[in-house]
Amino acid sequence: MSGGESETDVLVSADWVEDHLEEFQSDDPEYRIVEVNSPESPDEDFPSRYDQGHIPGAIGLQWDEDLSDQDERDILKKEDFEELVGNRGIAADSTVVFYGNGWIANWFALFAYWEFKYYGHEDCRVLDGGKKYWVNEEYPMTDEVPDFPSQEYHARGPFESIRAYKDDVDKAIDSGLPMVDVRSPEEFSGEKIAPEGMRETAQRGGHIPGASNVPVAQVLNDDGTFKSADELRQLYADHDVDGEESVITYCRVGERSSIEWFALHELLGFDDVRNYDGSWTEWGNLVRAPIEKGSE
Questions:
Q1: 185, 218, 260, 264 from 235: Cα distances, Å
Q2: CATH classification of 162-283 is 3.20.20.70, yes or no?
Q3: Hey, which residues are catalytic here?
Q4: What is the pLDDT of residues 222-257, one digit of tens each?
Q5: Which of the two ends of the chain, N or C, has the fewest CB atoms closer than 10 A to its terminal CB?
């Protein structure tokens, strides 16, 4: 973890990944690495898309096509998740490292990490800094697409303790429990409903009553790596989030909020942290759901 040590080993460095490139390219499923992209990711100066170049051995997944249920606007059903993961050569006991592109480092990769944890995959890790850090530091790249043997995959989950639904948000509002809105200040205030160019949006702008605004960029360094554990604790303490109570994170569709769910739950070790993946796309479209506008 850049600037300090986290309380877990879920965050791995680019050097660590480079040291394991041989294992990531092996048919043996002990180690797998996954690049997660989204059609909403920018066309940047570096090879942001999987087909433009990726870490040797990396499996390519699209957030919207592979990890989402297109009909229900939801994450994959358990059986679909098992089929996807097994067909890509990932076993239940694989060490799986996620990384991705986007305006924010690992934007959709952390959503994939959260979805894997929701279905009970034990050994999940994240490349600190994501693809942009890997490319900028001139680590190895390839355009070869791996074809790994399929695995029989059986998910242990779902584990609902890391996921929030509308009813959980209602209870948090009534109880005054902390909620962390990770969107930009303009989205939080209601000035904007979604970042420019985003397809999925809501009818109304604003935020959930009682939520604090901790924009996701504040948990990252300039190079996309996570800030130190001490810095993160202080950042959240400034918003009265100290891990003593249940915490809900949310954004627009649950992807940016998975980054701060990861920071709170996985890096800081806060026990009860839930990602509200319905997020503002659900809440901002609900009839009679209360909202607030303006800054904190």
A1: 16, 8, 12, 11
A2: no
A3: 251
A4: 999 999 999 999 999 999 999 999 999 999 999 999
A5: C
